[in-house]
């Protein structure tokens, strides 16, 4: 088996070899030669570190097997030879080799096949995670997007910082906004950006706090734990608690209602509590290693229990909202491959006056025929926006009419 150090160097060099090969690609293409991205025996890869030039070469020692064999098996020991000026020896053996190992291990993590876990009761099962969403394709205000990317990258590089201040290497995100504004898409983009695994935790499948604790302890480092629609997942919101208290009062008055309620909720009743979840986020988690993000999503942020969303627990609150012009332009670029059009001005004005989600805009821009042209899709979007605007106007007129004092009120 190859040692960890060997495979880290191998990863590092294959990335170097591939950049050098890419640089050569033009010449190679001209000569109609095939492109070699990995290192062959005795092939050299040049590297430069802090202005110092070095050369790596790979090779192998072939040793005749001591045992008697009919098929002349040989043992081979592969190695890498590093050549540099002896003046730099200390720096190369220290700083440079550490840098190679770190980069090599990072490449390994980035290239590994990532997993999407879902819980079936108290067990995780997984499939390969292959969602194509990235921050480049996520439509939202560019400045806000930059801030989020920066926040995520800073987090992923802050292991030493968290250790230094004695805090668990974890960060909580709350994504909120109407359905179809890209909450799930953003989570996939986060996982793709950082190369993390995803744990999609379905709280309604979790029996009680003990089961919750077991599931969360089993999650690995470099992962995102997602609890979608936290307001609907459990009895976690203030409103739901009040509703339940009211229902309990009614049931006390009429025991028949209680029986009916028990039958209805049988099978989907989970005893996970808000305090169980909070205890884990605050306490237990800190004890089980690091580099985890926990992401809650909700369509109704105002309904959440303040204890759940207070800063420190959910470090960053991100609102995903209706489609603005910048987000529309990105969708048009992705879906229609256009960056400008004479209908953009009309769309820009209509977007200011309407509430339409990026999912709805995307639906209009999605090519429906192989010959469909951009103008057709933009016109369909304009039609939808005009309809939306009309409906919104009617609604506000109705609200205004209802709030007007009726004439009778003033008659004597
Ligand atoms: N901001 C966005 N950028 C790009 N595509 C988007 C965006 N928002 C929505 N979409 C598109 O709409 C579809 C639905 O979006 P998504 O599931 O991410 O929304 P959501 O906010 O998570 O909705 P829900 O609250 O119903 O779960 C996605 O598959 C994606 O193609």
TrEMBL record:
On the tree of life, the source organism's domain of life is: Eukaryota
Question: Where does the AAA+ ATPase domain start and stop, copy by copy?
Answer: 169-324
Output one GO MF annotation. Answer: ATP hydrolysis activity
Q: Keywords for this entry?
A: ATP-binding, Hydrolase, Magnesium, Nucleotide-binding
Compositional bias, Basic and acidic residues, is annotated for 393-404
Q: Where is this region: Disordered?
A: 239-268, 393-412
Write down the SUPFAM superfamilies for this protein, in alphabetical order: P-loop containing nucleoside triphosphate hydrolases
Catalyzed reaction equations: ATP + H2O = ADP + phosphate + H(+)
Taken from the record, one Pfam family name reads AAA
Q: What cofactor does this one take?
A: Mg(2+)
Task: Give the UniProt record's GO annotations in the biological process aspect.
Answer: response to stress
- Report the sequence similarity comment from the record: Belongs to the AAA ATPase family. BCS1 subfamily.
Specify the protein name. Answer: AAA+ ATPase domain-containing protein
**Native source species:** Lupinus angustifolius
Q: What broad taxonomic lineage does this protein's source fall under?
A: Eukaryota, Viridiplantae, Streptophyta, Embryophyta, Tracheophyta
């Amino acid at each position: 088996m190859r040692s960890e150090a060997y495979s880290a160097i191998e990863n590092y060099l294959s990335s170097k070899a591939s950049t050098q090969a890419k640089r050569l690609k033009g010449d190679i293409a001209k000569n109609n030669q095939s492109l070699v991205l990995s290192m062959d025996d005795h092939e050299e890869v040049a590297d430069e570190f802090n202005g110092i030039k070095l050369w790596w070469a790979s090779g192998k020692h072939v040793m005749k097997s001591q045992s008697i064999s009919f098929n002349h098996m040989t043992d081979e020991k592969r190695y890498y030879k590093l050549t540099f000026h002896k003046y730099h020896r200390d720096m190369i053996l220290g700083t440079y080799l550490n840098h190679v190992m770190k980069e090599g291990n990072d490449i390994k993590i980035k290239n590994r096949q990532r997993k999407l876990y879902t819980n079936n009761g108290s067990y995780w099962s997984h499939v390969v995670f292959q969602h194509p969403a990235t921050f480049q394709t996520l439509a939202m205000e560019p400045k806000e997007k930059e801030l989020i990317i920066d926040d995520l990258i800073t987090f992923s590089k802050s292991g030493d910082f968290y250790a230094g201040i004695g805090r668990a290497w974890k960060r909580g995100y709350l994504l909120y906004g109407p359905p179809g504004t890209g909450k799930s898409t953003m989570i996939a983009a986060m996982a793709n950006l950082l190369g993390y695994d995803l744990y999609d935790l379905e709280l309604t499948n979790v029996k009680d706090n003990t089961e919750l604790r077991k599931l969360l302890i089993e999650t690995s480092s470099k992962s995102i734990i997602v609890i979608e629609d936290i307001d609907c997942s459990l009895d976690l919101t203030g409103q739901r608690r009040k509703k339940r208290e009211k229902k309990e009062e009614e049931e006390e008055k009429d025991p028949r209602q209680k029986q009916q309620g028990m039958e209805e909720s049988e099978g989907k009743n989970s005893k996970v509590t808000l305090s169980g979840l909070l205890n884990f986020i605050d306490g237990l988690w800190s004890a089980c290693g690091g580099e985890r993000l926990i992401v809650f999503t909700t369509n109704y942020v105002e309904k959440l229990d303040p204890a759940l969303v207070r800063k420190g627990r959910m470090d960053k609150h991100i609102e995903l909202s209706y489609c603005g012009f910048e987000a529309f332009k990105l969708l048009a670029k992705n879906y229609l491959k256009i960056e400008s059009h004479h209908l953009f001005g009309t769309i820009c004005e209509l977007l200011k006056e309407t509430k339409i989600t990026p999912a709805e805009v995307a639906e209009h821009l999605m090519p429906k025929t192989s010959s469909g042209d951009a103008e057709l899709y933009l016109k369909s979007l304009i039609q939808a926006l005009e309809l939306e605007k009309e409906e919104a106007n009617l609604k506000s007129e109705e609200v205004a009419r209802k709030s007007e004092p009726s004439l009778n009120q003033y008659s004597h």
